Amino acid sequence: MLHTAVGWHVELEFKEDDTRTRAAAMVRLPDGSEIRGHGHASRHDSDANQPRVGEEVAGARALNDIAMQLLDKAHREIDAAAGRPSHPISV
């Protein structure tokens, strides 16, 4: 069976200061919906200033937020199509 390739558009933005990094992520799905997630990272005073590491941690947390929302969305769509509650989708 031949399947059509589908793409998702993902955006990540960061705001940083000397000790904190905040990430905002957004994924645009083919059905036109958008899901947004947020994440943060904090640097301890004794840690070296490594902005890239803060971005990686905050970005991963924002993407994880989106992942959990996508699982919830998929679960609701399965329930709606089946007309009954289904088993939870685990990570």
TrEMBL record:
<feature type="region of interest" description="Disordered">
    <location>
        <begin position="31"/>
        <end position="53"/>
    </location>
</feature>
<feature type="compositionally biased region" description="Basic and acidic residues">
    <location>
        <begin position="31"/>
        <end position="47"/>
    </location>
</feature>
<dbReference type="InterPro" id="IPR015057">
    <property type="entry name" value="Rv2632c-like"/>
</dbReference>
<dbReference type="Pfam" id="PF08962">
    <property type="entry name" value="Rv2632c-like"/>
</dbReference>
<protein>
    <submittedName>
        <fullName>DUF1876 domain-containing protein</fullName>
    </submittedName>
</protein>
<dbReference type="InterPro" id="IPR038070">
    <property type="entry name" value="Rv2632c-like_sf"/>
</dbReference>
